[in-house]
Design goal:
The complex is a heterodimer of chains A (about 625) and B (about 300).
Chain A lengths: L1 H6 L3 H8 L34 E5 L5 H5 L6 H9 L3 H9 L5 H7 L3 H5 L11 H9 L20 E5 L3 H12 L3 E6 L7 H4 L8 H13 L3 E4 L9 H7 L2 E4 L5 E2 L12 E3 H9 L9 E5 L3 H12 L3 E5 L11 H9 L3 E3 L2 E9 L2 E15 L5 E5 L5 E4 L2 E4 L3 E2 L2 H4 L3 H8 L12 E3 L10 H20 L18 H5 L53 H8 L13 H5 L5 E3 L7 E3 L9 H5 L5 E5 L13
Parallel strand pairs in A: 2-3, 2-5, 3-4, 5-17, 7-15, 8-9, 8-15, 9-10
Antiparallel strand pairs in A: 1-20, 6-16, 11-12, 12-13, 12-14, 18-19
Helix pairs in contact in A: 4-5, 4-20, 6-8, 8-20, 9-18, 13-14
Chain B lengths: L7 H7 L17 H13 L3 E6 L2 H5 L12 E4 L4 H14 L6 E7 H7 L1 H10 L4 E6 L36 H6 L5 E5 L4 H13 L4 E6 L3 H4 L6 H10 L6 E4 L3 E4 L9 H4 L10 H24 L2
Parallel strand pairs in B: 1-2, 1-3, 3-4, 4-6, 5-6
Antiparallel strand pairs in B: 5-7, 7-8
Helix pairs in contact in B: 2-8, 4-6
Classes of the chains: A alpha/beta (about 625), B alpha/beta (about 300).
Bound molecules: flavin-adenine dinucleotide, thiamine diphosphate and magnesium ion.
The site of flavin-adenine dinucleotide (FAD) has 41 residues of chain A, from helix 9, strand 3, helix 10, helix 13 and helix 14.
Chain lengths: ~625, ~300
């Protein structure tokens, strides 16, 4: 009985003291009961020592987070909607983005491409959930943000009021700095206002988003052209830092005969005029050159003003860089697509455009972009009737327009990931710096620069900026504000893949699609095409989220542990732990966890035969 | 059909911290029996007395002087489970205790084979207690000998691959149904909502109640410990272990009608079937399919 004495020295002996029982060895013959009866439980049996591998709760990273260029805690806000707490979900969203209603409408949602649900039955409708939250009254005022820091007394100038400039202004204000934006156009918003048509992003939505940022104390000075009216060098003298986010909205020239006709527009020019209310004259037959999103936006806008619209593209639909759904919608709205054609010249009669001569192409070998390149077919020229032409060949960055100073030009060409240049206090971001040109990337760049500026101005953050990067992707402002104390910033956090999940718990559920009103007939209204989720739809869609890598307290590990070793850290806590001295390391918890919130690790027999219970 | 995550009420009971048997018991890693017992005890609560014959569970509970169950438990000889439970129930009744639930908890060996006569007698008398057979499809405690619950041709130490078991798994459910007892159900720990509901329902019924629990055994059925729940789930989802309940030996309800996964997905997890060739799988499948058809027919008739 030696072993039992060892194991039960406290508890068993207490039982013996309190009851009539004695350890078996000390019983006299007449004290031996007629039937042997146990008097203690098994709690102290050191069965935990049997194991070679040990489970541990370990937060993994949902791929949507790493894929979001903004740095939104996507899984966080989606699962909070699922739990029915929309206000907290809105706050989680607000912690990383100033423009949820905008991104909720126009973001190209790389989060959805990264979503593990793609491999089951289609990604979660994250963009639409963001839109749902962004449209809630919580975002009616700047109260959704509380000043994270007291005023620092530092002043920052920002050139450009597109999403890049707005995001950095927002982040810098949260950090306590005073921000002034200089915008050359009469109204703020950049391409959100002058590029993206109102039928995708209504003006009142955008002005609400910008209004909130103004209410934080950000001054936006419109009609000021940095470079002409205000030299960059002067700005740098009068402000503690300057952030350049002037975009890339100079149209690429088409250079064909007749391109100086008054009925020839660049896409940006056309869209910009269209949003200002005076839609340029296109006549009956409007031709768009190009295959990108600007081409499709210009085409759908022209269609809304009553023209017959044809997109002329030199490859085929499959190679068009514009988004699938946008092309679908355009075709549904009656826009023609002339594939495999390159423009040769515009035919002008008596000063008016009457047609465009094109050459047929065929597809050859893939080019650098991986798409098959168009090869002109000699002698295949043909004419398309045209009363106007919109050039949507793409936009380029123009540094010379901003500054003639070559030191500045060079500095703005050699920026690091955070938008810092080698000129003290000069930073840049958004479309202006190259890379992916999307709203989300511009917001992400603006946030990164805000963190870099903050560090430059105050120089005190102990952690390197890199430590605020989530899963090798975006930077987290919320994490920065908390000095890195955020589970998604844990060192070495692993991004969860579909194969890490347990598909047994995820039945197929069809995705909630947004309703669309595609305008078959021109009505000039530019009214919004897509409508948002109802609260029920948003919740149903959020329900589809796997919550990859994050414990949702589903309880399966607790139900399935044969040892009862999966328990809450304390009765108040939602956090679970493995009671190490009972866990035998079978691994059922890790295997069964639907979302890979636990890992199995080898036990180091030497250093931790039985680890403490508070691991 | 795919299992969904358990509902909150189930988690509150079956997932509750520090309830049910205490940890530190002696089950092997990933024991489906220990898991089932833990879930069962949480479902029915502590106001009960257990009777356990010779079997793994008798060992798992702990060596004298310790016991993991946390409720009174009587260890009893192999064939004597049912009459012992009858006796304890009679004793309680005599003392005026009509609340304490008596639970006989026995292996497949003790139920399908050695104790069957005694189980039948208790069922015939409609003695008022809950009889649970946790089925790991062999005499595991003594080293994996075949029992009446072992599937045809599965490997055990007494049915090596060269000399396979020739009979199919004994149809204990029909045997029990023939006694016209008030409640019979099958349950699998892989389906917690269903498991909880059946134990709670059985607890409230008067008379002889028989629960047949599927309890995969990693060392005996030769699979990785981490796969216990998966083996149980795949048994249900491939219709190898149908989830059902029968009232008064007549009214049968299939409580889970899976969109069946291939039987291979159940068999291939376990090395006791590793020697199966395609024709063995087909033969196995045929038996399962036939049984499922019978049950579906019964389910439809609802006599
Ligand atoms: C037609 C079109 C549709 C698009 N649709 C989408 C979409 O659906 N989804 C998406 O994610 N992205 C879309 N994009 C891309 C997206 O709009 C841009 O990537 C994003 O707006 C870039 O933000 P930014 O702040 O860097 O620059 P911009 O939005 O271009 O803002 C730059 C601002 O700086 C101002 N500015 C320029 N020079 C000066 C100066 N010298 N002084 C003062 N101010 C100056 C400009 O007037 C402008 O307001 C679209 C682009 C186009 C052209
Ligand atoms: C009369 C009798 N015969 C044989 C044994 C040896 N014995 C002890 S446990 C056991 C196996 C029990 O098998 P089962 O009931 O299926 O339970 P399991 O151990 O598989 O859980 C045997 C054969 C015994 N204890 N008494
Ligand atoms: Mg057995």
């Amino acid at each position: 009985m030696a072993i039992h004495k060892e194991i039960f020295s406290d508890e068993a002996l207490r039982h013996v003291r309190e009851g009539s029982a004695k350890p078996p060895g000390q019983l006299s013959a007449d004290e031996i009961p007629p039937m042997a009866a146990s008097w203690a439980n098994t709690e102290k049996m050191p069965v935990g020592g049997w194991k070679e591998n040990r489970p541990r709760y370990l937060r993994g990273l949902s791929p949507c987070l790493a894929h979001c260029p903004v740095g939104n805690d996507v899984e966080g806000f989606v699962s909070t909607v699922r739990e029915g707490d929309v206000e907290s979900a809105a706050r989680l969203l607000a912690a990383e983005t100033p423009l949820p209603a905008t991104c909720g409408r126009v973001c190209y949602h790389p989060c959805e491409s990264g979503c593990n649900r793609v491999q089951l039955d289609g990604s979660v409708g994250i963009r639409a959930i963001e839109r749902y939250l962004g449209d809630l009254p919580y975002f009616d005022s700047a109260n959704i943000w509380s000043q994270a820091r007291p005023a620092t007394g530092k002043n920052i100038a920002i050139a450009g009021s597109g999403p890049g400039g707005l995001a950095s202004a927002w982040a810098l204000s949260l950090l306590g700095h005073k921000v002034e934006i200089f915008e050359r156009k009469p109204e703020p918003g950049g391409l959100l206002l002058y590029g993206i048509p109102a039928y995708r992003l209504p003006k009142d939505i955008l002005s609400k988003e910008i209004g909130r940022i103004k209410d934080m104390g950000v001054r936006i000075n419109c009609g000021v052209n940095v470079g002409e009216a205000k030299e960059l060098s002067k700005l740098l003298e009068s402000y503690d830092s300057v952030f350049v986010a002037t975009g890339a909205a100079k149209s690429r020239d088409i250079n064909i005969k007749g391109d100086n006709n008054k009925a020839v527009y660049s896409a940006i020019e056309y869209l910009s005029e269209a949003t200002s209310g005076n839609i340029p004259e296109t006549g009956r037959e409007c031709i768009i050159i190009g295959g990108g999103n600007s081409a499709v936006d210009a085409a759908r806008s022209a269609k809304r003003s009553g023209a017959n619209v044809t997109i002329v593209y030199r490859r085929t639909r499959a190679e068009m860089p514009a988004y699938e759904t946008e092309i679908d919608d355009a075709l549904k709205e009656g826009i023609q697509l002339e594939e495999l054609a390159i423009p040769l010249e515009l035919i002008v009669e008596n000063g008016s455009l009457t047609g465009m001569k094109c050459l047929k192409t065929k597809l050859g070998e893939p080019d650098d972009s991986g798409r098959r390149s168009p090869i002109p077919v000699p002698g295949s020229d043909f004419v398309i009737p045209a009363s106007s032409m919109i050039n949507a060949l793409g936009e380029i960055i123009d540094k010379e327009e901003l500054t003639k100073n070559s030191d500045f030009q060079n500095a703005l060409s050699e920026l690091n990931h955070w938008g810092s240049s080698n000129i003290q206090g000069l930073f840049a971001g958004g479309d202006f710096v190259g890379g992916d040109r999307t709203v989300a990337h511009a917001i992400g760049g603006g946030k990164r620069a805000a963190m870099a500026i903050d560090r430059f101005l105050l120089g005190k953050s102990a952690n390197p900026l890199e430590s605020y990067i989530v899963g090798g992707g975006p930077a987290s402002l919320a994490g920065y504000l908390k000095n890195g104390e955020s589970d998604v910033l844990a060192e070495g956090i692993k991004t969860i893949q579909y194969k890490d999940l347990n598909p047994a718990y995820f039945p197929n559920v069809e995705r909630e699609e947004l309703a669309k009103v595609l305008d078959q007939k021109p009505d000039n209204s530019f009214r919004e095409v897509e409508s948002g989720y109802t609260p029920e739809e948003a919740k149903a869609e959020a329900n589809r989220c796997f919550s990859c890598g994050r414990c949702t307290n589903c309880g399966l590990c607790q139900i399935f542990c044969p040892e009862g070793a999966a328990v809450h850290r304390d009765p108040q806590s939602k956090e679970l732990m493995i009671f190490d001295s009972h866990c035998k390391g079978c691994g059922i918890c890790v295997e069964e966890c639907p979302r890979c919130a636990l890992v199995m690790e080898p036990v180091n027999k030497e250093s931790d035969v039985v680890k403490t219970e508070t691991q | 059909m795919i299992i969904r995550e358990p509902n909150k009420a189930t988690v509150n009971i079956l997932g509750k911290d520090h309830s049910g048997p205490s940890g530190g018991h002696l089950a092997c890693q990933g024991c489906g029996g220990a898991l089932s017992l833990r879930m069962a005890l949480k479902a029915i609560g502590n106001r009960c007395i257990f009777v356990i014959p010779a079997c793994c569970m008798a060992v798992i509970d702990g060596p004298f002087p310790v016991s993991s169950l946390g409720v009174p438990l009587m260890h009893i000889a192999f064939g004597a489970t049912a009459p012992t439970a009858t006796g304890i129930k009679a004793g309680l009744t005599t003392q005026g205790d009509n609340e304490t639930l008596v639970v006989a908890w026995a292996g497949d060996g003790a139920t399908f084979d050695i104790g069957l006569g005694a189980v039948s007698a208790a069922a015939d008398r409609n003695d008022d207690y809950l009889y649970v057979c946790y089925d790991n499809e062999a005499y595991m405690n003594t080293g994996i000998q075949q029992s009446g619950a072992t599937p045809k041709a599965a490997w055990t130490t007494t049915t090596p691959n060269k000399k396979p078991k020739t009979s199919i798994k004994k149809d204990i459910i029909s045997i029990m149904a023939a006694h016209r007892i008030p409640y019979i159900a099958t349950a699998s720990p892989s389906h917690p909502d269903d498991f909880l509901r059946k134990f709670q329902k059985a607890k409230e019924i008067k008379g002889f109640r028989f629960l047949h629990v599927f309890a995969p055994c990693p060392p005996g059925q030769r699979f990785e410990e981490k796969n216990t729940v998966k083996v149980a789930r795949n048994a249900v989802e491939s219709r190898v272990f149908p989830l059902l309940e029968i009232e008064n030996g007549e009214k049968l309800t299939l409580t889970d009608i899976p969109d069946p996964i291939p039987i291979k997905e159940y068999l291939e997890l376990q090395n006791r079937f590793a020697h199966f060739k395609n024709e063995d799988i087909e033969a196995f499948e045929k038996n399962i399919e036939k049984r499922w058809q019978e049950l579906s027919e019964w389910n439809r008739k609802q006599t």
